[in-house]
Write a structure and sequence with these properties.
Length: 278
């Protein structure tokens, strides 16, 4: 942890540092500055932030809180980043109309579900406490995606097990209590054509995995999958392999990178619940 406080920044600079992780210019819809702040020298960073984390940050003397997962308005806009799934599917040979139809159904489901959200509670608490609050989701996930992609591409790739071994070399996965798992198919199978499906908001569940398998992808890599979606894959006896990496371990990669950049700027970071990168 860096304990030099010679530099103070504001919430705009925090967001820009997040975007610079992957050289993006604009905030995606799932990321935002919810409560602006200046003269920030100590931040709490967590995957999920509730009112409890805001109070903890206040008690620890933090000047701002950085959440990863969407909250407030970004929780309502979360579905808007799902179009990235279309981009990924097109790159791997899924027809455009097929990809767009699957993603539209995903977006419609989440958009309707968002009407049940009590989306003002955490942001309102931050305002009452006077605690600057930012959430940075897709930029950190994109950083993680590129890190994993590099590991796979530079590793030896023959069997599904080889992909598992390559990704396990990343410290966050090596240090995680959850292990990388081949939840469908076998580690002994040939990799064939593969797709890393990360940084599109959330995993694609059953419909997107099925589309990849149907159009020639042998191995699909998700961070996680709902059990009901996995059950559907088994019921339809799809041909392929599905690897799940672990949600917290994956998210920790991008958040550690963000925290490292902030510390390089002279800030102190409190990394709450994030899996260590060393």
């Amino acid at each position: 942890m860096n304990t030099s406080y010679s530099v103070m920044i504001d919430t705009n600079e925090i967001m820009n540092i997040g975007l610079k992780l992957i050289d993006w210019k604009r905030m995606p819809p799932d990321s935002a500055i919810h409560v602006k702040g200046r003269k920030i020298k100590k931040v709490l960073i967590a995957v999920d932030v509730t009112s409890a984390e805001l109070i903890l940050a206040k008690n620890l003397g933090c000047d701002a809180v950085i959440a990863h997962h969407p909250l407030g308005s970004t929780a309502l806009n979360f579905y808007k980043v799902f179009d990235r799934h279309i981009e990924f599917m097109l790159e791997h040979g899924v027809p455009k109309d097929k990809a767009e139809n699957i993603v539209k159904k995903m977006k419609d489901r989440i958009k309707v579900k968002s009407h049940a959200h009590i989306y003002t509670d955490v942001v309102s608490t931050a305002r009452i406490l006077g605690m600057p609050l930012v959430n940075i989701h897709q930029p950190c996930d994109e950083y993680m995606r590129r890190r994993i992609l590099d590991k796979i591409k530079t590793g030896y790739n023959d069997l599904v097990l080889d992909i598992v071994k390559s990704i396990e070399e990343i410290p966050e996965f090596r240090n995680s209590d959850t292990r990388i798992e081949v939840c469908y198919g076998s580690k002994k199978n040939k990799i064939g054509r593969w797709a890393l499906v990360i940084a599109a908001g959330t995993n694609g569940g059953f419909p997107i995995a099925k589309a990849y398998f149907e159009y020639g992808i042998s191995t699909v890599i998700y961070l996680h999958i709902d059990y009901n979606d996995l059950t559907k894959i088994y019921e339809e006896k799809l041909k392929g392999n599905l690897i799940i990496l672990g949600h917290l371990a994956g998210d920790s990669i991008g958040l550690n990178a963000l925290a490292d950049r902030l510390e390089e700027k002279g800030l102190e970071t409190v990394r709450l619940g994030i899996i260590p990168s060393k």
